Structures are given as C-alpha cells and as structure tokens.
Amino acid sequence: MEKFYPSVTEDEIKKERQKAKLLKKSSWWKRKISKKRCYYCGRQFPEDELTMDHIVPLIRGGKSTKSNMVPACKECNNKKKYLLPIEWSQYLESLNSSDPEKNL
C-alpha cells in the first residue's frame, strides 16, 4: 500500500510554524508543559526539555491548533517525525512485540 502525503506548500508550512510560535508563548502552552509529561511516552521531563509536537504533522496536512499540539520529549518527537497517530501507534506496538522481556 502506497503512503499518501497531501500536497502542502512551503508557504502553508511557514504560516503554521508562525502560529505554533505564537501558541508556544501562550499561557495555554505554559500550562501544558507545567505538567512536565511527554504526551507519547508518559515520562516526566523538566519543562525546558519538552518540545511542541503536532499530532498530525504539518507536512501531512496538520494545523497549529490547540487540539493538534502536545508536549513531547525530544526522543519521542524525533522518532515520530512525520508519522500520523495510527502509524506512530503501530511503531510503538512493533517495539513492544519485539521486546523479549515484555513477552514473558
């Protein structure tokens, strides 16, 4: 099955990144990171080690809206990259199934 990537222009991505920068300065975002927890792995981190991640990546048509932005540790954000939520879930499941200690 071929992967489908919507055609998103550089201008659209630039516009959404600008919106994300504004959201990052908001009290809403400060409350989100004050919980000090990565949305994906659930581990705790200092606020300055959490990044802003688009659940649906910009390159895949995601927007910089509160419902699409979550705090993520750098490791999860770097590994997730441009994956959609279902693709990320499948990736995490594959890690769990290949971990021999989890299968005991």
Automatic annotation (TrEMBL):
Domain of life: Bacteria
Annotated HNH nuclease domain residues: 28-78
Keyword list, A-Z: Endonuclease, Hydrolase, Nuclease
CDD domains noted in UniProt: HNHc
Pfam family, one: HNH_5
An annotated Gene Ontology molecular function: endonuclease activity
The protein, known as: HNH endonuclease
Organism from which the protein derives: Thermodesulfovibrio aggregans
